[in-house]
Amino acid sequence: MIAVQQLNMQFGIKGQLEFREDISGLIVAEISNQQASASLCLQGAHLMTWKPRSQAMPVIWLSRDAKLAAGKSIRGGAPVCWPWFGPHASEPAFPGHGYARTVPWEVVESGTEPGGETRLTLRLTDSEKTRAQWPHDCTLDLTVIVGETLRMLLSTKNTGASDFVIGEALHTYFQIGDIGAVRVIGLAGCDYWDKVGGSTLRKQDGAISFSGETDRVYINTAAKCVIEDERLKRRIHVAKSGSLSTVVWTPWTEKASKMGDMGQPDGWREMVCVESVNAMENVVKVAAGAKHTMTVEYRAELI
After folding, report:
1. For 46, 137, 203, 229, which has the most beta carbons within 10 A of its beta carbon?
2. Does domain 2-302 have CATH number 2.70.98.10?
3. What are phi and psi of 137, to 5 degrees?
């Protein structure tokens, strides 16, 4: 509890930002202002929830079976995948999607934006174990700005003397009414790797709709996406910069049943992932002394 008290003294904002210790022992930042509420676990800098005051339902989905545990990822929210996306290129024993989402981060700054939004910045803390997987000198910061819109900025700064290459994603799960009644618009004409179809390169024809497991990496695209939700009568707008890949994912019945934390039996039907990514052809070289920032902005409107 001493750590929580120190965090609240140094970074807490009365009526907006408070830190608490979860039953798991992990520390969670609770944000509540006039525009929205959100929660973020300091392990992994993992945004778990976001609900604008204008919305009856959350915009960010968190599984009802999600578990907080030291060294484990949380099902739902917006996991930070870094410094690689998917399996490691040469070390199969290294964790999929990198280690950033399962290790401690530290709070480095908080504040209130001019429009009343709440801002929180966390920095990845390295260790002997993480340096064994990523032996490069760098800092990784995530800034979250919570209001009627949600902005997240993931910044990698190369503090070393040599260039390095990163893959990264904000692996965001969005709350929907039902996966069979949504469409994702904005990627028509884009090339994508179909991971369900044996990593086949295809071209998107029109809007994306769902009738089975979907795992697609859209490449060479900075396009904005819109999730049209017939059941909840709303649109979720996904805008990004510093990202040239977009992943669209739903596990469907068989894969979800093997996960154990998707909110059985049908929690998976109430989410879809539209991820802002740099992967495959779009991995990013960060030059010595340079910084790369990937930014996302989410907004929901009723229709």
Report:
1. 46
2. yes
3. -80, 120
In the structure encoding, which two tokens stand for residue 9, read together?
């003294």
Q: How many other C-beta atoms lie within 10 A of the C-beta of residue 275?
A: 25
Q: How many CB atoms lie within 10 A of CB 27?
A: 20
* DSSP category for residue 32: E
Catalogue the active-site residues. 171, 275
| d(C-alpha 275, C-alpha 169), whole Å | 7
User: How far is 212 from 234, CA to CA, in rounded Å?
Assistant: 22
Q: What is the DSSP string of 176-210?
A: -S-GGGEEEES-TT-EEEETTTTSEEEE--SSB--
Q: For the segment 90-120, what is each residue's pLDDT rounded down to a tens digit?
A: 999 999 999 999 999 999 999 999 999 999 9
Instruction: Indicate the domain borders of the chain.
Output: 2-302
Closest CA to 292 of 146, 194, 154: 154
| 62 Cβ contact list (under 8 Å, min separation 6) | 48, 49, 74, 75, 76, 77, 173
Residue 27, CB half-sphere, CA atoms under 13 Å: how many? 20
For residues 121 and 291, give the distance between their C-alpha atoms in angstroms, rounded to a whole number.
Answer: 16
CB 79 within 8 A of CB 41: no
Averaged confidence pLDDT in the chain = 96
Q: How far is the C-alpha of 105 from the C-alpha of 120, rounded, in Å?
A: 12
- For residue 181, the tally of other CB atoms under 10 A from its CB is 15
Query: Does the predicted model carry a pTM greater than 0.85?
Result: yes
Half-sphere exposure of 206 (CA within 13 A, CB side): 3
